[in-house]
Input
Amino acid sequence: MDAEYRAHLLRDELATCAMSPHLVCELFEKNGLTLPVVRIPDVSALDAVFQERLGVAGTSSALSLIGGGVAQLRSFCLHRNDESEHRGTASMEDLLQDTVHNELRSGAQVVTLSAAPQALPLLTRIPGTRTRAQPAVSHYVMRLRGYRSLDDYVGQQPAPVRKVWRRDLRDVQRAELSFTTEPLSARGCADAAPFLAETARRYGDESGSLTSEWRLASRMRRPGEHLLMTIRAGGEAVAYVAVTVNPNHLDAHTVGVAPDSEHRQTAYQSLYRACAELAVDRGLDFVAFGHGNAHPKTSRGCVEVPQWRVEYSPESHIG
Output
C-alpha cells in the first residue's frame, strides 16, 4: 500500500464518516504518523448490512476501529513524510499502544478491521493487551502499471488467464454488447438502482432499489472522479458498474446486472474488460475490484491481497 493510496484512503474515510451521524473519525498523530480511529457509539444504530460488513452483527455495544476501514474495508496508517516512514517502526509501536489502550479504557470493542499479514507482528504485540487475529475477507487488485494497452496486459499473462480474456472478447462480440461511460449523476443512480438491488439481493441484501439508489448517490460526496459505465445489448441496458477514478487507481465498487437478460453472464464478465481498459487509458496503476468473489477476478489476472482482523482486549485493568 503506497503513500498515495493511503492518502486517498484517509480522505475517503473522513468523507464517509462525515456523512453518517453514527460514525466519528478521530486522527491520532505521532512523529509524522497519522492513525485514524473510527468510533461507533452504538453498533445497533447501523443497518444490518453494515453490521455484517464490519463483522459485528447482532451486537449493541460501542466499537472502535483502529486504522479505520469503514470506507474501503482497509485499515491503514498514514506516513506524513519519507522520514516518518523509514524510522517509523518504534513510533508506530508507541502510537498503536497509546491508541489501543485509550480505546480500551472507554469500554468499547476494539478492532483492527482489515490489515495486511505483514502488519500482524506490530498489531499483535501490544504490551498490556490480549489480541486475537483471524483471516478477514481478501481484496483483489488488477495490476496494470507499465502496460501500454489491455492487449499488452493480457499478452503477458499465463496461458489460462489469456484463454479467459479471449473467451470474454468472443462472447462480447457474439452478444454485440456496447459500452458507454459518463459522469455519475442522480439520473444515472436512479437508472442503475433496480439492477444494483437485484444483484445485492442475490448476495443476501434485501434493502431494495431506493436504498441502492441512495448508497450509489452518496458516492458522489466522496473524493475522486465518479463515473457510471453502462453495458447495452440491442440498445437496452443489461449491466452497470460504478467506478471512481483516484490519483493512481480505479475503484470498481458497485455492480448491477439485469436478472432476466439472456446476456447476463456475458455482461457481468465484460465489466472486467471495461474497467481494465478505462484504467489503462487513464494511465492508472491498478484496478481495485473489492473483496470476495475470488474466482472471476483471479481467473482474469487479479492478485489476491490477504487481510487479517485483529481484536484487542486488556490483559488487566488499564489505568
Residues 3-137+306-314 form one domain. The mean pLDDT is 90. The two ends are 35 Å apart (CA to CA). The chain has two domains: 3-137+306-314, 145-284.
